[in-house]
Structure formats: structure tokens, C-alpha cells
Amino acid sequence: MLFTSLEFLLMFLPITVLAHTALPKKARNPFLLLASLFFYAWGEPSFVLVMMGSILVNYLFGLYLSARPGQRGPLCLIVCLNLALLFVFKYLTFTLRNLRLLFPALGADLPRLALPLGISFFTFQAISYQVDVYRGGKAAADPLEMGLYIALFPQLIAGPIVRYPDIRERLEARQITLEGLRGGFLRFMEGFCKKVLLANVLARTADAAFSGDLGTVCGAWLGAVCYALQLYFDFSGYSDMAIGLGSMLGFPFPENFRTPYLSVTLSEFWRRWHITLGSWFRDYVYIPLGGSRGGGGRTVRNLMIVWLLTGLWHGAEWTFVVWGLMNGLLIVAEKGLRLSERRASLPRPVRTLQRGGVLLAVLLGWVVFRSASVGEALLYTRRMLGLAGEPLWDPAFLFHLRQAAVFMAAGLLMAFAVPERLLKRLGSGTLREGLRCAGQVLRVVLFLWAFTFLVMNAHDPFIYFNF
Amino acid sequence: MERGKTTGLFGRAAAGFGALFILLMAGMNAGLFLEPVGEALRGEISFEEMTGKIAGGYRSDALWLKDAWVALNGGAARLTGQRLYNDVLLLNNGMLIYGTDPLADTEPTENVEQVRAFSEALGDMDIPYLYVQLPMKADLRQAVYPEGVAYSAGEKADRWVADLMRAGVRVLDLRRLLAGTEADLERNYYRTDQHWNGDGAFLAFGKILEEARALLGDGVDTSVSREPLWQRNVLDHWFLGSFGKRVGELYAGTDALLWRTPRFETEMSCTVEKHKSFYRGTYTEANLREKYLLERDYYRDNAYCVTVGGDYPLVQHRNALAPNPLRVLVLKDSFALPLQCYLSTAFAQVDVIDPRHYTASTLLEYCRWNHPDLVMSVLNVSALGDKRNFAFGEAQGGPETERTVLEAGDVPLEATESPHHYQRLMNLEGGKTYRFSFGKVEAAAGNAEAVSVLVFDFQRTAILRHQIFDVAFSNAGGDKTWTFRVPEGEGEIALLVYAGIHGSTAGNAVIFRDVRVSLLE
Predict the structure, then answer these.
(1) Do A182 and B12 touch (CB under 8 A)?
(2) Which one is the CATH code of B402-520: 1.10.3720.10, 2.60.120.260, 1.10.287.70, 3.40.50.2300?
(3) Chain A neighbors of B26, CB-CB under 8 A
(4) Which residues between 15 and 34 in chain B have a beta carbon less than 8 angstroms from any beta carbon of chain A?
(5) What does the pLDDT average to over A262-290?
(6) Within a 10 A sphere around the Cβ of A136, how many other Cβ atoms?
(7) Which residues of chain B have pLDDT under 50?
(8) What is the pLDDT of residues A130-165, one digit of tens each?
């Protein structure tokens, strides 16, 4: 079930929030777990068993590790089991496909395994849980608590990745406050609008560009920018909705995005984009490998490992591997040139260029990320740079630009936090308060508009009928 | 917007309004999930069926105020400059068209040989064939397309028509007449639908009659298509076409429904074989479906179907006051709906087949069995990509001999209260072709304006073939034969005659005179 579906908005959300709020405290966790399993089973009834199996095994291992702190063997085993689950569903086909290229004798049919929704997220949560327990943290009191930690529906499908210590106390006892409900719902509305009004609409132009309908230099840039915005609003919108839902249920989820396109270095960008994933890799891969202790060579190695894994985490395709390694190399170069430390001493035009460079690097990275293959990514990039022999622009580009203009403008303003920065500049006063109030009215109008999109997306009358 | 903070009163109001809205919509649509959940809890459906039903319910027309949401969304799309929306393209003149070129992946000229062969086969039967090419909206008018949108339909249709003519097929190309200028488009086509309106069809009617006269002689009275003889009827803001339904009425407005009715005396019938429907009376009573004129429903009704009611495999028009005894077969797409009614005033019999749906025989067989005086294909450009329109088929084997297998003489059916009162004539064999004929039908009691003749499979309790005869028309010299092929297969299959239309025989007593069945081999 998607957050941006009518059945979620009009059925699951009101029933779950109302019931959760109205139920006595002791009944909330069982109810929420049932609701979360229902949520997951909606689209994947058979995979609920996979998840429940994962919950049970991780709970038992957590108990064992908690009773025997410092035992590496069991930790390695449960981490491997979690990774094995992820490997089988997400990477097995990819691995076999590539092995077949190397060893054609491996002529077996490739298994066609559907990918359980959210497996990347709940597997990483399970691993972080085990490591935290191993390091002396408290284990889940009972399978119900463990189940709720893993399966809690707001963050189950697309994060943010939540650490067990961050919500343990809330799992045991939490308050539902009016402020939490109000604030959470506002946050949900905001994310909903980002996803439906910006991400989904800009996706049309991005899809047209990446499918070859915009075969010009400007068309390629338009597609790349639209995709960069689409990806940001899709992911951050979903995170907003998850955080808002968590707030309504009494759980404070961590922020996952902090205006990443305002970053001045690539390292900063990745500290502002999908924050919980970045911090997960930092805490559970980079630092255990040694981090930046141990000299330049080791640091480079550790960074490249992290970025290789980050790429792979996003998908089982070579494009994600290339994308990950690209970012790794650029960050290594950035650290080597000490761009972050030297930034303050650089003249303003150079700082502006540096910021532009970051945006360009991110944009070109997204092209690789979006493309169906490395070859297509190269072709698209060449088109952007005017090296594919295509014209600068054509009427089709102008048509798509007009189609996307309003949404792209809104997206750029929001991605670069222009409204917030303008408000800050206004200081306090009537105008500022008036604009903030107008912003709330706008939020409601946009929410209603986004709702009509949900209806429209499900509206598919037979183009002509009556037979 | 401040991240998640309720900014005083307005923030609280925004959250409250949003929450109230969700609760209101949830409450008004509660039935969409309560019913499937109830069924699942009672064990009547599985979990997956339940989720499917719930999701389907929210996507259905049962969603509260769905039409309003669609309209609002379309209006906002228009305001934000969306020229291509929900697979609909807004032309520069405000008209709507397909979002993607319907001929993008096809080359119609691949079907030229089929049409040529069909024309030749008809020629061997001394049946003239006319191919009528209608324009899709705007396929000639590149100027009305927004810049940057390419449509190849017009050029492909040009090549198609040229190739047909080179192949020796008689072609009436009405594209430039109907859609040559922007004014033509706006006069002859609906803004929000892919179809032409009653005016466009009327223009084509006149031109087709002229061609028919050239082919069939003076028996075709072209004066019946003179404007003064027809009344132009308009219902403003009545129709939201197929494209309009996809984007809502605030995107490009609505259309006035436009149709014409004759001012001269008429007495005709219209039979829709699929629904076993029979309409008899004046032109309006026989051909117009009143429900589309009494109540307006933008999203659930297709008012374009006010004439005839829709696209059916076979529709038969009979005209008791026709200026000639001619029988015309029209092979068509949905554009023919208004046109076939106009044509029914000019010919005694107009049989209309939609090749996309007709399966009772091949088209060539139908021609061989019924020997119409003229066969015409009437297709718009967007239909050229559908190969079913050019599957004329073979006349399987062809009847070498016709052998009488039943001479039943008079077949009386007494009046009963049953709505399905029939007489079983004989058993039939699967795969064989038969011809049923009669001399006359007399109504002894009741009001059987029409009678059904069925091929019925008693083993599967299924109607395999069905023909309705207009009693008055047949008795006055109209068609009294029906040739049909029984589908292949075993079963207890029989030929039945009814005391009226199947399902409406109560109180009718009829006598079929001089009934005969022959086997075609």
C-alpha cells in the first residue's frame, strides 16, 4: 500500500490513527503491529511470512547477544543471515546473470524472485539492532516490540532507517499529544504534496527525456534537472510523510533530508541526503573498518567500500555500482584537495563555482542512477555535453519545457529553500506573519489539489465505449 | 513552509481542515471498504480478493464526488499549462485529440492488398464496393497541433488513400471536405470527443449518396439529403466526449450534442442483434435512444451514442417508406453511428457491421449470402491501425448447391403467457451453413412487430445465432431469408422460431407461412 493511494488516505490512515489514539496504552502496540502487518500484506501477502520470520530470528538472536555481550560469532552469524536474505531476494539474479557472462556453461534459467517491499530497509534496521545490542544496548523486551520496531508501517517501505535505541522508549511507552497529531499531519500533508504535485508530475518530463523523446542538448538537461527534482521530492516527500505519520503515532523519527541541493561540497551533500542511510554506513561499515584513522590509503579504501556498498544497496544493477564508485572517487578527491577546509578562504566567485560543481556532479550522478544501463548513461551524458551530434534544442524541447515550467519552477524554489530563506530575511513583523499564514492556506490548497491527482490517476475511462 | 510546525492559529486551522477533509472523505466512502472487509471476514472472499475489491472501489465511479475531483484536477492542469494531460492533447484551437498518434506504430498501406482483394471478390459477385475515408480530427491540420508535437496520421492516410486508388479500389476521400480548414473542424467535430457531430455526418451523407447514385443509378434519391428536409437539433452543454472524460469538463469545456432528424414522413425499424432489441416507428423512434436526451451525465453516459446506442457487431435498419428496394452493407467504425441512421432514410435495407466485433461469419460470406446491392467501408483515419477492419475473410468453400432439408409449410405458434414461446423446427449440425426462409408472418393475436429465429444449443443452454425479422417490412417484400453457419462442435443444436422477439413473446400468436430450411454445400 502506498501512502499516496486512496485506500491509504481514506481508509488505512484515519482508522489506524484514530484507533491508535483511542485505544488504551497496553493495546496500542499489538494494534499497531497488526496494522503494520496488514499494511505490508496489502501488496505482498506472501512476504509477510518472510518479514515475520526475520522478526522472530532477529529477536531470538538479540536475546542471545544481550545475554552474552561481546560474542562476535553469533553477531556475525545473524548479520550474515540478514544479508543472505537480502542477497537472495535482491542480488541473486544479478549475480547469476553476470556469472553467466563469465561462465556461459552456467546455462541454468535465472530465478525470477519478486523483491519484497522494503527489504533493504528492514534488513538494515535488523542489522543495526543486532550490532547495537552487541555493543551493549538493550534488546527488545518481547517479540511484539521487536516486530513493531521492524515492521512499523510509516518507515517500513522507504525509511527513514530508524535505530532501535532511538525509539525503544517510545515502544515501551509513548504519549499521543494534540501537538504531535497536528504537527505530524501537517508534515504528512507537506510530504504528500511534494510527492504527488512535484515528483510525480516532473517524472513525466524526466521519463520522456530518458526514453529518447527529447533528443537535443537542452532536452537532455531538462530531463536531468527534472529527474533530480523528481528524485528529491519523491524521496524527501516520502520521508516527510513517514516522519509525519510517526509523529501522529508518538514516534519521533530522525530527519532524512536537509535541503541537500544547498550543499557546498559533495561530502556535505551526502550528509544532507538520505541522512539515515549515510549515518548507517558510517556507523556500521566505515567506522568499524577504521574510518579515517590509519592513514590516507586506508581512508580511501574504506570510503570506496562504503560507496560501493551504497551503490549496490540502491539496486542490483551496474549503473548503481558505477554511481556509487563515482561518488566515492569524487569524495576521495574532495578530501584529498581539502576543499571543505579551504572553502572559507576561497574568493566568492570560486565558492560559487564550487557549489555549481557539486550540483553538476550530483546531476551527472543522477543520470547514471536513472539510466537503464551504463551505455545509456554514457549516451545521455554525451547528449548533455553536446557530444552526441544532436541539435541544441527543438520544438519538442520547448513543448516539454512549457509542460514542466510551473512545476519545475516550484520545485527549484523549494529545493533551494527559497521561501524559507526569504522568510528569514524578513525578520519578524506583520509581513512575515502574513506570509507564513498564507503559506498554511497554500498548504491546504495544495493538499486538496494533490488529492485530485490521486483521483485522476485512478481515472481511466475507456477512450470510447458503449458496446 | 516551516517544517512541521503548527504556526499559531493558521497552522492549527490548516491541520484541522486537512484532517476534517480526510475524515469526511473517509466517511462518505466507507462503504467502499466495509463491504469487502465484511465479505472477507465471513470467508466469502480471500484477503487478496478483498484488497483488490477495496482498491477497485476507490478507483470506481462510486468514489464520492469523483466527477468534481476529476473536473478540478483538469481545470488546474489547464491553468498550469498542461497541453498533454492524461493521454489527451489540447490543440491550439481548444479541441482535444489523442495524446499519442494512433498510427504511430502502424503503416496502413500494409492493408491495401486486403481491401483490393475484397473489392475484387465483390466484383466477381457483381456487387460494387466503395471505400469511404473519413478524417480523424485534425490529421490534416498541422497548424492546430502545438509546436513540438508530431503526428504522422495525416501523411500515412494520404499514402493509404493513394495506394488504394492505385490498386483499383473506388475511394471517396472526405477528409478535406470535413476537416480541410479549422472552421471545418470546429463545425463538423466535437471539441471533447474524437468523433464528428451530426453536421459532419450529414455532410458525408450527401456525398456518399452521390457516389451511390453513380454506382447504382437513379434508384438512389440524393434529394433526401437536402438540408431543408432535415431538422437540426442541439442540446447545449450536454456532451463530454471521450477525451473530455479523461481530463474533466474544466479542462476544455463541454460540447453541445448535435443531431438531425428528418422532417419528412418515416416508418422504419432498427434491430440490434446483440441485445435482441427491436425498435420500430418513425426515424426518431427507431434510431434515437431517448435516454441520452432526457438526462445528462457527463461521465457515465456517452451521448454520442444517441443514434443507435453504440457499436454493435450487427445492426439492421429497415425502411418501409424507402425510395428504392436497395440493400446496402456498411462496414464501419464508431463514426458510422449518426451516418448509418441518415443512410437508412435513403435505402430500404441498411445492414451495418462492425468488423472489430462481428464473428458470426466472414464479411465475404455475409456478402455472398445476402448479396447487398452496395458494400461500403466507412472508416476514420484512427481506425486504419486496427487490422480487424481489414479482415474480410474468405467465403469458405462457397455454396455450390442449396439443398432443401425441411419444408415445414405453415408453422403456427399459439398465444401463451411465456416470454420465450417457440417452435423447434429441426436439429442442426455444427459447422454447416443453412438458409432459413419464409413466405410471410401473420400475427393472429398480440402485437408481434418482429419475430426472432434462433440457433440454440440445448446442451449448453446458449443462443449461438439470432436473427430478428421486421414483420411488416418482410411481409411487404423485404428480407425473408436468413443464412447462417452453425459454429463447429457437438451439442444438441436446433433451429427455433419464436412468437415474437425472444424474451417478449407473451400473448402473441403468429403463423409462419411457407417455412423452408435448406443446407448450403
Answers:
(1) yes
(2) 2.60.120.260
(3) 10-11, 14-15
(4) 15-19, 21-23, 25-26, 29, 32-33
(5) 93
(6) 10
(7) 1-6
(8) 999 999 888 888 899 999 999 999 988 888 999 999
